[in-house]
Structure formats: C-alpha cells, structure tokens
Amino acid sequence: MSSETHHDGVARLGLLASAIARRPLRVAPGERGEAAWTDGKVVFVDINESARGQLESLVVQASLLAAGSLDPGIVQRLGRREALAKRYLAVEGHRALATLEALLPPSSRSLLDARLARLGDSPEASLAAARSREELGDPPGSFGAIHPPRLIASMRSAEGTRSSRRTVTHQQRARVELAEGATTDDAQEDPFASPVGGGGAIGKWLSKVLTAVRQLRSGGAPGGADAPTHWTRARGNGKAVFSTATTGDIEDSTGAGKERGRKYPEWDVHSRHYRMDWCTVHEVDTRSSKDAERFAIPDRTGLRRSLARLGLGIDRYHRQAQGDDIDIDAVIEARVEMMAGSAPDEAVFIDSVRRRRDLSVLVLLDISGSAAEPAGQGGTVHEQQRAAAAALMLALHELGDRVALYAYHSQGRSAVSLMPVKRFDETPGADVMQRIGSLEPGAYSRLGAAIRHGTALLQDLGGTPRRLLVVLSDGLAYDHGYEPAYGAADARRALGEARRDGVGCLCLSVGSSTDIEALRRVFGASAHAAFARPEQLKQVIGPLFRAAIRSADVKRRLE
Amino acid sequence: MKDAEARVLTSDSSVKDIGSTFKSLRPHYIPVASEERIFKAAYRQRLAILIKGPTGCGKTRFVEAMAHDLGRPLITVACHDDLTTADLVGRFLLRGGETEWVDGPLTRAVREGAICYLDEVVEARQDTTVVLHPLADHRRQLQLERLGVTLNAPREFCLVVSYNPGYQSILKDLKDSTRQRMAAIEFGFPTPEVEQDIVSHESGLAGAQAAELVRLGQAIRRLDIAGLREVASTRVLIAAGRLVVDGLSMREAARAAIAGPLTDDATVTRGLFEMIDVYLPDQRA
What we know:
The complex is a heterodimer. By secondary structure, chain A is α/β, with parallel strands linked by helices. Chain A has helices spanning 3-11, 14-21, 51-66, 72-78, 82-99, 114-117, 123-131, 148-166, 168-175, 180-189, 201-219, 247-259, 301-308, 328-339, 381-398, 430-437, 447-462, 484-500, 516-523, 537-558; strands at residues 26-29, 37-38, 42-45, 262-268, 273-283, 314-320, 325-326, 349-354, 359-366, 402-410, 416-422, 466-472, 503-510, 527-531. Chain A has 20 helices and 14 strands. An 8-stranded mixed sheet of chain A has the order 4-5-11-10-9-12-13-14, with helices on both faces. In chain A, strands 1-3-2 form a 3-stranded mixed sheet. A 3-stranded antiparallel sheet of chain A has the order 6-8-7. Chain A starts with a helix and ends with a helix. Chain B contains 11 helices and 11 strands. Chain B has helices at 35-44, 59-70, 85-89, 105-112, 128-136, 176-179, 192-203, 207-221, 234-245, 250-262, 266-279; strands spanning 5-6, 15-19, 48-52, 74-78, 90-95, 98-103, 115-119, 141-144, 149-152, 158-163, 182-186. Classes of the chains: A alpha/beta, B alpha/beta. Chains A and B meet through helix 2, helix 9, helix 14 and helix 20 of A and strand 5, helix 8 and helix 11 of B.
C-alpha cells in the first residue's frame, strides 16, 4: 500500500471519531513516530502504528473529547508539565472509556481498565489522582498523548467559532424569521416612512429618488415584466412568466455605472435621518489575474434538489384542460352537467405546472478583508463563501431562474465597488468561473450601499415579479466612518427598504466565526442562517428561500 | 409475527390498512415511559392525541398496540402534500350514471368509532387540518359539506396524529390552534437494552448480535453532520437484523440496510462503511 492511500484510510475514520466525540472531528496522519494526540479539531494518529493501534488511539482521544477530559479549565491546569499530563492520561483515559462504554467498538473495549477507571469519577478527580503520589504506571502506548500547550493554542483560535458551531441546527431553526413581524420594528425605528412607501417628507423624497433609479424599468422594459404573481389555480394556460429584460438595459446601466457610479443614501442611526447621495457605488470589472487559482466547480446536486422542492417548482393545478391525473371532482361535475343537458366543462385534469421562472435572484458576495480569516472548518471564510455563492448561482441557473452574482467591497463612502461576476443575462461558462476564481478578499464592507445597489439592480434587470436578494457575508459591516453599530443599523435599514420594494432578502453566513447576536444586529428581521460548511446549505436553503420570498410577497399583495 | 391485515379498497390509495383488530396478536411494543397510560387516559377522556418523534422510532407500532389494547379498529392514513380534504372526508363518485357518495377514511372512522391515525400530518395541505379542528376539540364533530351533514363522533372514536419535528421542515409545523387541541406524547429512541430486545424480537436475531447492531446505531446517532438524512432508527437496525437472519454477514447487512438508506454522499458513505467495519464482525450468522 502506498503511503498516499494509507493516509486516506486514516482520514476515513473521521466519521467514527466524530461519532464518539460527538463533535466534528477530523483524523490526520501525525508526525512520524509521534504518539497520537488531538487539538480538539483533528486527531493525529501515528502512521507507524498498526491499523488496530491507530483505531485504539483514535477511540481513546475521541473519548477524551466526549467525556470533557480536555475542557479548557482542566487543560490549563495541566500546564506544561508533560509528566503530569501523562499520569492524568493514564487515569482519565480509562474514565473516559468507561463513560462511553456502551458505545465503544468491540475491539476497543479491551483497553478499559476498570481499576483505574474507578480512581476518578470526573476530570477533576482524575487530575487529583494524577497529582497524588499513587503508583499509576504509564498509560498504554495506544492511548497516545495529551499536549496541553498545543491544545490551548488551538482552543484559543477556535474560541469564537465553537459556540456558533455546536448549536448550529438550533440556530438555523430559530433564526428563520418571516419578515411580517419585522416590518413593524422597521416602522418603529423610522417615524418618517410608513411600510408601504411613506407619506412623510422624507418618504416622499425617498420615493422620488427611487423612481429616478427605476426609470430604466418604466422606460425600457416592457410592461409585462412586472406581471401579477398570483397564478389562478383554476385554468392556467400553463405559460410561465418569462424574463423580458433586454440587453439594451444592461448596457445602459453598466455604461452609466462606469462613468460616474450611482449614488445611494445612507441611514445615520445617530441622528436618525438619511444622508442623501452619501455613497457612490461603482461597478468595476474583476481583475482576472492570469494565475487565478483554478476554481473547482462545486457540486450542487443536493442544492438543486432542495431548491427544486420549493413551492416554486412543480405545483399541482386542478381543473386543467390537460394533465397527468384526473380531477375526480371536475369529472363528476362534468358528468352531472352533461346529464342535466348543459355543455360540460372539459377541463377535468390535474396538471403539474412549473412556475419557477417568475423568480430572479441576485447573489451578493462579501469579499472584504475580514473574509480572509480562517474558517472554522479549514480554508478561509472567503473560500467557503465563494464556494457557497458559486454553488447557489449554478444551481439556480440550472433550474431556470434568472440569477446574477456580484461581489462587493468598499474603500470609504465614495468607492463602494460591485464586481459583476455573472450578470443576469450571462451564461455561467469558463469566463464566469475564472472571475470567481480571481476574486480576492480585501478592503472593507459598506454593506448598506451594496444592498441598495443590489436591490436597484434586481428591480431594473430582474425582470420578474418575484425578486430575491441573497447576501453572503460574515456579517461584519465596517468601513471608513461606518463603524459596526452604525453599519449594522444601515444594513438593517437597507434590507428593510428592499423588502418594502418587494425584494425578498436572505442573508447567509458560511464558515465565519461571527456570533449570532452580531448577525442578528446586522440582518435584523430578514431570513438569515449561519453554518460551518457550504455543503450544509442544501439542508436549509429550501425553507429559507420560501420565507424570504414570502416576506416580499406580503408586500406585493399590499400594493 | 404477522398481523392479520385486511386491505381496504377505497377511492384513496393512501389508506393503508385496517389491521390488527383485537382478534389478532398484540403487536410487539415495549413501553418506555408513561406513554401507554397517557394514551389510554386521553382516549377515555376523548381527547385527540399528538405523537411526536423521529422517523422509525416506533410511533406507528405504538398506535397499533394501543388500538389492539383498546379493542378498536385502526385506520391509518399516510399524509402527503397532495392530500386534500376530499381525500380524508370522502367524495362523490360515478357509478352506473349516478353519483354516489363514498366515505373517506376519516368519515369511516367517525362512523365506525375507530381510531383514525394520520401519519406525518404536517405533510398534508394546511387546509385539510381545518376539517380536523371541530373533530379534535370538545365538539367532536365532522362536517361533511358536500352532503350537508354533521356527524357526531361516537365515544369510541379517537383521532391520533403523528409528526416528526426535525423532518426537513423549518417552517412546516403544526399550527398552534391545532396543537392546542391535542394531548402530546413525545417519543425518542429506546434505551440500548430495550432496543436490543426489540431488534432481536422483530428480526429473530440472537441477542448478542442484536446488541452489536444497537451499539453501531447508538454511535451513528451521535453524529451531527451534513449529508446524513436521518439518524439510524430502530427500523433500519431491524432491517439489518433481518438481512443477517437471511444469511448475510453482519457487515453486508449493515451496509445495505443502514449506510445505504441514510446517505447518498460518497464521503459520508465511506465513513459509515468504516464505522461498520470497526463495530461489526465479518462472519455470517
């Protein structure tokens, strides 16, 4: 066996280690000749050991993590004393195995020494026993070792991410919110504008500004583009609303964008008013570096499947002229009518109709400097977010939705840059992949302006009645004169404006260590979720999309 | 053990069976806590019952056992997202040029005083639960709009619904107004000892081998990872046990019945195979 495949074999035990430790845990080959140890995220096993020895040390190390033997408080007290750590392992290893006895693989149960396991009933007791003068003997070789300094170092770096990771499923559940509730708190914050558009002076001014921005749509795009959303359940002719934005529009907007940029207001939370024309957003092309790292096209089968399950996918309609099932109620009515001598209605089928083409999605990807930080699960936050954005964009495109992907960062209020990675009418080909690959994190993030520009783009170029803005960000809004509290208020405000204009908002945070409270401050009432790895997207994306779209639907019905 | 099952033909294919009437053997069910007492008390007090719990932990079996104990026929409806009110209540069919009313499963249960079990009720369309409301509260009435009739449920009728709180549904949840009309029983997976007994009883596997399967199942349930659709339920452990009884090796059976159904993700599958190899011996039964 080559050493390559041998390593792979070790990594494959990751699932076993995670199951025993009850937390995500990887297994990696350690230094040659070094006893097995763990830093809380990875178990390093000795590649010189036999397969059985590796398995045993892995089980012991994972058990230590599960039994709380390596909690920070204890590890700190072990300090740098190797001998004490060794004695502690000799006692605590058995105790950890004993607490998990019902779960251990059969081959590892022989490791357990009942006498030593009885010495301590808690990590503290084991530590006391290790400090005593009792003759303990060395731990068996297959226990590996505990390296307190390395553990402490790794725990420090993981401090922030851990809390968010452990309870991620609950948070995802808890944090899906519909925006109906939110509109009210937006209204509380803003005495000037009513949810529907605003009758106050500022509201009027704002609507004027937004109309000027919208002028492209009212002038250029055909009127049908904003057709009514609500399909009549009875008798549809099966034609979905199709995108109608023309390329002319796009040329216009980008041409204008390049020359002078678009100006957007910003919400000043301290004085509680808008700062007019405060931010200037430029659309700039991505610098496609020749040596752009080859960006691997992410797998999105699962994602596509969850998105296809959305209510937007296939829906069943009764009383159709053709279809794949008979609508019994309609048939019976038709028969009754026929017998009564009148002409029956022949639409007696149930049809499955796709009505997903009435959705356009704009994905905003945060490429500010904070995204360069290491993610909890390996790689950087930027890499994780980029993979998620690309997967989402591709999946939506493949499902036939109109989708665009823009990256953003900023350098002060006059230089908010949005980089079109994929415009609405582009097909995601090699050039788009190249652009994604050459995105590099840098500068700051003026989230509010980016959201306002994204909303405007969706309104001008989306071309469909349902519009959705997806923001992929670590939730840190920071720029010159845009400190976190101010930035969070502005971003929240911008999301509220978007919803008010009938654009659904969804905020996703992938792999970052921002805690939930901070995310909530920034994303407010918009549907938002945080998860550790891009692959987890597929589990929550369906309901999140539904919630976000519904929040915008509510607004449209009010109109 | 095979219950006498009477298949019922109606307009709706989702009606599974009227099985396990009181003449047959009691379905094998081992109580874990006070669930049997709660069920019977709620039945006597004519309250509707809500059963919560993960897939494959024994909800359906529990209801079958209760129906047997109480001596009532059981009508099970597996709910799906296309289940309409008419599917539950009944509809007019054509027969020889005349229209004829055919009762749906719910109506039949009310008329017969049976226990009506709606499995995975959140999967049904939201509007179907409207018909359940007057039936679940003190009125205990079923309104048949098409017929202009209101049926009063007899004492023996009982409405039981089940749902799986963690089942891919963040937003799909029972309405509070529905929930408040019911007495709830929460289900989890049984303790290892009980589960071993169940696996060995249901599959005919020897106790020691059943214990090894249960140990593997317990370990898989500790995983909180993406890519795993559901945890290894008692049901998949029993399936693996039955494959072993039929001559497969423990590992083959676990791969086919536990790893395969749980995930499509290649990496997770490899990891699960590895776990199976560590936990289970290779020899045949």
